[in-house]
From TrEMBL:
Keywords: Hydrolase. PANTHER family: ACYL COENZYME A THIOESTER HYDROLASE (PTHR11049), PROTEIN VDLD (PTHR11049:SF16). GO terms for cellular component: cytosol. SUPFAM superfamilies: Thioesterase/thiol ester dehydrase-isomerase. Residues 8-120 form the HotDog ACOT-type domain. This is Acyl CoA thioester hydrolase family protein. It comes from Leeuwenhoekiella blandensis (strain CECT 7118 / CCUG 51940 / KCTC 22103 / MED217). Belongs to the acyl coenzyme A hydrolase family. GO terms for biological process: acyl-CoA metabolic process. Pfam families: 4HBT (PF03061).
Amino acid sequence: MSQFKTIEASQVTISELMLPSHTNFSGKIHGGYILSLMDQIAFACASKHSSNYCVTASVDTVDFLRPIEVGELVVMKASVNFVGRTSMVVGIRVEAEDIHSGTIKHCNSSYFTMVAKDDSGKSVPVPGLILKTEKQVRRFLKSLNRQEMKKKHRNETSKKTELQIEDLEILRNSHKVQLEY
Ligand SMILES: CC(C)(COP(=O)(O)OP(=O)(O)OC[C@H]1O[C@@H](n2cnc3c(N)ncnc32)[C@H](O)[C@@H]1OP(=O)(O)O)[C@@H](O)C(=O)NCCC(=O)NCCS
C-alpha cells in the first residue's frame, strides 16, 4: 500500500434522479434517503483511499438547507479532507439541479468520519494525504481543528458532574419544562 495518496485519487461523484418513491408526506424528498446516499458515497470514497472497507464512526452537521423536489437531479461529491491514523474525514457536498431550468441549488454539506477495517474487523492505518492546493490545505486544517474540538467536547461530556442548583433554576424558569425531579 502506498504511504501517501492524492485527494483526487479517491474523489467520488454520484448523481441520481429523485423519484416519487423517495418522498415524505409533504411531497419533498425524504431526508433519510439523502442521508443514506451520503453514507454510501462516504463509504465508497473512504474505502477507495484506504484500500479497505470502512465503517461510519460519526457524522457532523447535517443541515438540510433547501428541500429537494421529485424530478430534480441530485449530485453528491465526496473527497477525503483529513486523515488520522485509522480514520478519515470525508467531506460531502450535495446539490440538486432543476432539469428544465438547469438551476443548481446547494442542499447540504456534511462531514463523515470513516474508519478503515481489515477482514477481521480490526481498525487499520490509512495512507497519508498529498495536499496540492490551498483549498486542500485549508480543508485539512479545518478538519484537524474540528477533530480536536470534538475530542475535547467528548472528554468533557463523558465526565459525570453533579447537577448544580443554578442548572435546575434554569429549568424551573423555562416555560417548556415541567420539573418533577
Ligand atoms: C467507531 C469505531 C470504528 C471505533 O473504532 P475502534 O478501533 O474500536 O476505536 P479507536 O478508539 O481505536 O478509534 C479508531 C479511530 O476512530 C476514531 N473515532 C472513534 N470514535 C469516533 C467518533 N465518535 N467520532 C469520530 N472519530 C471517532 C478515533 O479517533 C480513531 O481515529 P484515528 O485512528 O485516526 O486516531 C468502532 O466503535 C465501530 O466499529 N463502531 C461501529 C461502526 C458502525 O457500525 N457504523 C455503522 C453504524 S450503523
